[in-house]
Amino acid sequence: MSTIELATVELGGPRPAIIVPLTGPDDEQVLAQATGAAASPADIVEWRVDLFDEPTPARAGKLATEVAAHAARPLLTTVRTTAEGGRFGRGTGAYADLVAALAASAGVELVDVECARPGAAGLVAAVHEAGGYVVGSFHDVAATPGVGEMLDRLRAQAAAGADVCKIAVMPQAPADVARLLEACALADAELDQPVIAMAMGPLGLASRLMGGDFGSAAGFASLGGHASAPGQVPVEDLVAAVAVIDRLRRA
């Protein structure tokens, strides 16, 4: 599997990276959270632009550069649509314009692209032309598909040119989490790209604590009580829990 060398972390390396989201609705709160991220043990910061009160290309593109400077971490920008559990409900053209503007912003190293959307190929190309990395993503906020479907989703992201392939699902039973972890392990063995996989909600805790054992290259944790998806644990708790698991693994 190939790894991605970011400014301060290796994505796909021996240790899963920890990503924290910025969820503030305005400039002041987003920048304050970014400053908090700089003092946290997080490796990567994700700005959830769809949670911003006025996510226009010009405004968000300008602020992204400031966010990167305040966070002092590699910055992932994400526009999560309503179809995949986010708040961005505008059309395909508006989504494309916003994602392209973020990709062109100085300081943005990673850009989330929902690869199943129309026009995704053009956005992948735009991110690469701007010198960034594409995190292909798929979210099922209601259920957990079968192993084959999840694996096909990740394969499709890789085929579309994503540099990182990501899937998040909502388990309804423990067996759903087991399927998600199996799909992650199979994708990690097959694909050249780093894979990120998680099961959301309380049932999905095992995927957040031990996803790295199944090939997940990163996990998401909340920052200062601000979560971007159900089931995210505080970043300090995740770091401590993973350290205990690592110690027991070596015992």
Automatic annotation (TrEMBL):
Q: What is its EC number?
A: 4.2.1.10
GO terms assigned for molecular function: 3-dehydroquinate dehydratase activity
Q: Which Pfam families match?
A: DHquinase_I (PF01487)
Record keywords, A-Z? Amino-acid biosynthesis, Aromatic amino acid biosynthesis, Lyase, Schiff base
Superkingdom assignment = Bacteria
Q: Where does 3-dehydroquinate bind?
A: E46, W47, R48, R80, R208, S228, Q232
Give an example GO biological process: 3,4-dihydroxybenzoate biosynthetic process
The UniProt function text for this chain reads: Involved in the third step of the chorismate pathway, which leads to the biosynthesis of aromatic amino acids. Catalyzes the cis-dehydration of 3-dehydroquinate (DHQ) and introduces the first double bond of the aromatic ring to yield 3-dehydroshikimate.
Its protein name is 3-dehydroquinate dehydratase
Species per Swiss-Prot/TrEMBL record: Propionibacterium ruminifibrarum
Q: Which gene encodes it?
A: aroD
